[in-house]
Amino acid sequence: LIKLLHFTEDASALEKLNKVKQFYKNNLATFIKKKYSISVDPLSIFDIHVKRIHSYKRQIMNILRLMHVYNEFYENPNFDMLPRTYIFGGKAAPSYYIAKETIRLINTVASVINADKKVNKKMKIIFLENYGISLAEKLFPAANVSEQISTAGKEASGTSNMKFMMNGAITLGTLDGANVEIHDAVGDDNCVIFGLNANEVLSYYQNGRYSAWDEYNNNPAIHRVIDQLLTGPFTSNGDFRSLYNYFFGSNDEYFVFKDFDAYCQAHNRIEKKYRDAAAWHKSSLINIAHSGMFSSDRTIKEYADDI
Fold this sequence. Notes:
The chain has 307 residues and is of the alpha/beta class. It is built from 13 helices and 6 strands. The longest helix is centred in the N-terminal third of the chain and has 26 residues.
């Protein structure tokens, strides 16, 4: 695969790569329309976050940001964005109440945004049910952006990031799990890294100086979306009070509030990169070329040699 680096300046090869990506985006858009009766723009950025639903994997940070983007549409007359399709998928453990509430929040926000004619030409949110291998086969080759946003130091490794990389998606993530190796391989220009690192997270746990209330009170964007868990436009009668209470009861144990601004800025960097189509296709090919490092043969040989 590394030999693909010979084609990073070959315009015709990059265009062929883009056509393959577009073919799979069209297929996924057709699948979504058929199964969910939702039309998504196959030319939009396909931003995909699929994995087990867990607070440390921070699907909730993703959906809170989308609530923030919705607010921006209505409050900032100069706000603009490239069309984006945000796709979630994953399962919660049967007894994991907060994870289930996270899924419910994603679907609730999606229902509001997808029905809003001012917003839905620029963004759609889809939660795909029953995430498994057959669905993954449709998602990985269609992805432009791979969401790998777990709290640094919590992910043992992760493999979806490898599969997205091998299919030419650009990683947007924290320095956690295999993201560290992806970043080392492709460099800052070909992935987007943000947020606290593992040592900073550990330091907060050890010194006890982190305060969710301080972050909430000092960050207007966080303050607003957290309040919106209790009252409109996405909910009424405190429907998501359990999530509101969770953040403050756990003192935001996975640092969603702390990383929120950096996460928003990372998305701005993704959008800026995507506007330069040739550079984006080049980054996509560079990711594919370096993905061979995750070969099981290489991994098992290292285990044998080192352990």
